Amino acid sequence: MKTFVLKPQPPFRLDLTVWTLRRRPENAIDDWDGRVYRRVFADSDSPLLVEVSQLAAGTRPRLSVAVHCDAWSPELQNRVTSAIERLLGIRVDMKPFYLFVADDPKLGPLAERFQGMKPPRYPSLFECLSNAIACQQVSLASGIQLLNRFAQRFGQPFDALPYRRFAFPRPTDLADTNIEDLRQIGFSRQKATAILNLAAVTRNGHWDYARFQDVTDDDCITTLCELRGIGRWSAEYALLRGLGRLHVFPGDDVGARNNLYHWLELSTKLDYEAVARTLQQWKPFAGLIYFHLLLDKLALNNPGEFHVQTQAED
To answer: Which residues form the DNA-3-methyladenine glycosylase AlkA N-terminal domain (predicted)?
Structure first.
């Protein structure tokens, strides 16, 4: 095992960030025991188990990163560091957001309650869009359970007591997989076809985050919607949770719309256009509102699993 320390941009709270990433307590890919975040990464040679814990918070937050692997090198540390920086958003500067909401009577208290959350991003476009596909037209809990089975069946295993853990499958891991293989673990035929098509087009390396780095939102959505099984909601989900475009609020997300509706205590349900109009006053931070409302709902619905007050000390 190799350990090293990372220094996130302050403020940072690991617990809030991990819950924003994992979304549900059933998530076995992004494991959290209340103190340590664990995830298996599929590396070119062998899988790695990465464990992250918070050593200090406040103005000088520090994270301890432990990597369980067969062979260590400076290059591997750089890859792990890059992955953690993206996954946990530790380099994102939230100061402009906090300054923006400081005097806002509605958004200010919400931001203060969850101060230290950083916007997470999926490690790869394939994982991001696979999450979107799996969670279409089902409850989030059902989608997460489906993704757990997907990882257990096709992801690289890492044996670590007390149980085996699995990396999220890579496109190459699905090279010999067919529709019936995916249907056996609960994917519909339509979703299985979409996942395999996504794996096929991303195996050549042309469908990754770099492809969309300098592309406008509208053009990103148009291009992503060319993929089988990807519509406007999935594309906007990828803009926020994959590309890190924090001004994007996936307006077709029914759960997110309901969160916004309840938070603002509205009398009329919101549609896609109404969501955009409502969030205009908080431009360009709609995506951060999306994440904060998710945490607000998690804190309400999972009191035994989620503790807003839990944070590391200086």
So the answer is: 3-124
Is residue 52 left, alpha or beta, with left meaning phi > 0 and alpha meaning psi from -120 to 50?
beta
Model pTM?
0.94
Give the phi and the psi of residue 158 in degrees, each rounded to 5: -130, 120
Summary mean pLDDT of the chain: 94
CA separation for the pair 59, 14 (Å, rounded): 14
Cβ within 8 Å of residue 204, ≥6 positions away: none
* Contact yes or no for 208/121 (Cβ under 8 A): no
Tracing tokens 């919101």 back to the chain, one arrives at 270
β-strands 36-41, 48-56 pairing: antiparallel
pLDDT tens across 189-210, in order?
A: 999 999 999 999 999 888 999 9
| CB < 8 Å & 24+ apart, contacts of 183-189 | 185/146, 185/149, 185/150, 185/153, 186/145, 186/146, 186/149, 187/134, 187/146, 187/150
Distance in angstroms (rounded) separating the CA atoms of residues 257 and 262: 9
- Give how far the C-alpha of residue 222 lies from the chain's centroid of Cα atoms, to the nearest Å: 22
Residue for token digits 């990433």? 21
For residue 209, give the DSSP letter: G
Distance CA 214, CA 216 (A): 7
How far apart CA 238 and CA 221 sit, in angstroms, is 9
Three-class SS of residue 65? strand
In a 3-state reduction of DSSP, which class is residue 231? coil
